[in-house]
Amino acid sequence: MFDYKLLFALAAVVEQGGFERAAVALGLSQSAVSQRIKLLEARVGQPVLVRATPPQPTELGRHLLNHIQQVRLLERDLTELVPTLSEGGGPERLRIAINADTLATWWAPAVAEFCAAQRVLLDHVVEDQEVGLKRMRAGEVAACVCASERPVAGARSVLLGAMRYRALASPGFIARYFPRGVTSEALAHSPAIVFGPDDSLQHRYLESLGVSGNFAHHLCPSAEGFVCLASAGLGWGLVPELQAVGELARGELVELLPDRPVDVPLYWHYWRNGGALLDELTRQLLHRAKSLLVHQRAPD
Predict the structure, then answer these.
(1) pLDDT in tens, 68-87
(2) Who's near 139: CB < 8 A, 6+ residues apart?
(3) Domain end: 71, 89, 107, which one?
(4) Which has the closest alpha carbon to 132: 91, 174, 96?
(5) pTM higher than 0.90, yes or no?
(6) CA 228 to CA 246: how far, in whole Å?
(7) 271: part of which helix (H) or strand (E)?
(8) What whole-number distance in Å separates Cα of residue 202 and Cα of residue 38?
């Protein structure tokens, strides 16, 4: 049988990004947390953490983290049936990996009612939609919104809809770089804005226009900052349609190629054995996504 105090220590170290913060979260001394990790490793006969900054789970550590994530959620189901099992009665916390554009646009109205009704607190782990699934694979989160359809072992994935992006730039930027109109060649020689090194959306967009290879670009790992840079004329970029409604209406941003929007599918991944709480959150997201996301592909 597992000693779940040891597994909770492992989860805290990974989720909090270190032993010191894990100790604060658990209400223990740092040495006590360290001793629990050492005892866990002694019992399983191999390391569960790579002592890096921040600590990373080993392959076995990932399996243990996946297990403890699901145990937490199943325990909540039991306390709903048998309230006397609950020690503190505090709200449940869910760690969810999510891309910045989702967080900046449709996520809050989709989950607000659920969090209030279920007394849930959310820990958001922001990752690009291309790579967010790695957090589930590492056992660090209970669920994930990302662009990958295939779930990790032990999880399910459902299509929520698509986030529609449009290529936008400021009027001044357009006048400077596209005096003869927006062409593939002109786009290739004008500075773009890219969210981060894992963001390949602009790359794929240019490739669809026949432009390949490297191109000049700013890096801006902030959804709000991305729009600010584009509005200020630093570059052009693919911005969520939901996020740019005001800027487009005020003329601060202008669409470069109105007939070429990009729809990025978004999938919700969650543990099969995540209990009633994750099932209810999934139902809520599917319901709300019907009015918040695109459900028909934009034409190529």
Answers:
(1) 888 878 877 776 666 655 55
(2) 14, 57, 61, 62, 63, 64, 65, 66, 67, 68, 69
(3) 89
(4) 96
(5) no
(6) 12
(7) strand 262-271
(8) 46
